UniProtKB/TrEMBL annotation:
It holds the Pfam family Rib_5-P_isom_A. Catalyzes the reversible conversion of ribose-5-phosphate to ribulose 5-phosphate. NCBIfam families: PRK00702.1, rpiA. This is Ribose-5-phosphate isomerase A. Substrate binds at residues 28-31, 81-84, 94-97, 121. PANTHER family: RIBOSE-5-PHOSPHATE ISOMERASE. It comes from the Bacteria. One of its GO terms (cellular component) is cytosol. GO terms for biological process: D-ribose metabolic process; pentose-phosphate shunt, non-oxidative branch. It catalyses: aldehydo-D-ribose 5-phosphate = D-ribulose 5-phosphate. The keyword Isomerase applies. Its EC number is 5.3.1.6. Transmembrane segments: none annotated.
Amino acid sequence: MTQDELKQAVARAALDYVVEGQIVGVGTGSTARLFIDALAEIKDRISGAVASSEDTKKRLEGHGIRVFDLNDVAGIPVYIDGADEINVEMHMIKGGGGALTREKIVAAVATRFVCIVDRSKLVEVLGTFPLPVEVIPMASAYVTRELTRIGGTPVLRDGFVTDNGNLVLDVKGLQILDPVALETRINQIVGVVSNGLFACRPADVCLLGTGNGVQTLTLD
Ligand code: 5RP
């Protein structure tokens, strides 16, 4: 199976986690886009969605799915999103598409986080994929120096501005042995909006697309 077919399989499998009559939190990226297209087929069975990016909002609305402002919903039973890397502890690197901050906010509100990835995203140690860090523009040089001090090599994502009007530094060269500690440490650098480590709030379920079908990984 191709990588696209594996993404398609997990996107469809995620429909089983959508709660009837409720709001769905929706992530960003190519796998999330496939999920949105699948969600369109059952759109009459949900009350609507909360989007983690402008791109996702546009695609949901294009399918006629009502998009709610996060401030107008009391809760989100499930958030469904892809990842750039995930380990067996359900810690992830996200933000390849630059939507990390809004993704982290919607994930924080959600009761359950279902991560949908193809097999290539499952890793033993996080950090081969450069860690995205969203920064306030005036702090980018300072944050670059601080990230270098902790052993990374930050590279400014060329010509990219987030939905929040900020910049992204992609940090190469990190071997992330303690994701919770590193997520917390980077968040303490003044000028950082958020970072792409999703370890303090890991996924609850990972739907992993493999050549032998969709595998379900959980922490239990
Ligand atoms: C976007 C993300 C995506 O979930 C991540 O980049 C994976 O994307 P894809 O499904 O295209 O491989 O975090 O900010």
